[in-house]
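4.2 Preliminary Data

To establish feasibility before requesting continued support, the project team ran the inverse folding procedure on a target of 290 residues. The structure was first converted into the token representation described in Section 3, and no sequence information of any kind was made available to the design step. The complete token record follows.
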């Protein structure tokens, strides 16, 4: 037998054996027997074979060895993208299962791995989910980044609208109050709901308070007056009336200051609480000045 023929036979036999091992690995994976599946294909881990790398990734993902899973999925995708959708489904389904048992940290881990593996994949729903998970964990910076990417793709779906409150709160937590206000105004114009008005009022209050603390009273008054006109949120009205009164008092406009201090007291008929007590003292001071 010629040497070339012998080599061909050996190559064919080797390929045939490899295909058998791959077939066996798939069978064991379908039975969730990942250790046995690994025995079948681990010897081929250095091969530039997208299917082998994909199956290794599946095994390690099933064994909760996430770094190794991600490494082999990346290898598979670098060779070709045939298993791209399968990898996408694996991570998406894993994240959804984690969310069903309220394991938000693990769900977030799956979505982040998916974003690393498929950076060109921009399904808005997944981006909103990642952002919402970051928000729930108090990671407002990464939540904000996620919302910004998601809204670039989709700003009209039900998921986008449900996420708007968290998006605005993330902007607030990241000290982007003016950006939050612009978006809140746009949302209120789109739908004049109580929730949208409350959110806009809360943002106006925070901006007004910032200006007040810096003694930029004219600017503060713009935002406090807007809240006084809308009468929302009602839970902050006594604060707003008190700060408006303080601005007038600082400007020696005692008549208007007195009017707003009295509004604070009308909202606190039992005259309990710090603002009511401060307002009483101010009223007394004004009367003594006259």
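Position-by-position output of the design step:
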């Amino acid at each position: 037998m010629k040497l070339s023929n012998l080599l061909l036979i050996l190559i064919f036999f080797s390929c045939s054996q490899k295909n058998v091992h791959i077939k066996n690995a798939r069978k064991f994976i379908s039975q969730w027997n990942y250790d046995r599946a690994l025995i079948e294909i681990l010897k081929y881990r250095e091969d530039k074979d997208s299917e082998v790398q994909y199956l290794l990734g599946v095994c390690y993902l099933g064994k909760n060895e996430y770094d190794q899973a991600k490494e082999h999925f990346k290898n598979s995708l670098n060779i070709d993208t045939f298993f791209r959708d399968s990898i996408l489904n694996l991570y998406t389904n894993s994240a959804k299962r984690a969310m069903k048992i309220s394991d938000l940290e693990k769900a977030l881990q799956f979505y982040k791995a998916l974003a690393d593996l498929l950076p060109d994949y921009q399904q808005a729903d997944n981006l909103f989910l990642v952002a919402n998970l970051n928000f729930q964990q108090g990671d407002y910076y990464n939540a904000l980044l996620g919302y910004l990417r998601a809204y670039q793709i989709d700003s009209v779906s039900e998921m986008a609208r449900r996420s708007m409150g968290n998006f605005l709160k993330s902007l607030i937590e990241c000290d982007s109050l003016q950006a939050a206000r612009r978006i809140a105004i746009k949302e209120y114009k789109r739908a004049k709901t109580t929730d949208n008005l409350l959110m806009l009022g809360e943002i106006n209050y925070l901006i007004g308070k910032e200006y007040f603390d810096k003694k930029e009273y004219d600017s503060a008054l713009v935002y406090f007056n807007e809240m006084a006109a809308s009468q929302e949120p009602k839970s902050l009205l006594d604060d707003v009336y008190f700060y408006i009164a303080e601005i007038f008092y600082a400007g020696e406009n005692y008549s208007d200051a007195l009017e707003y201090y009295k509004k604070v007291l009308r909202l606190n008929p039992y005259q309990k609480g710090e603002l009511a007590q401060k307002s009483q003292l101010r009223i007394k001071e004004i009367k003594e000045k006259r």
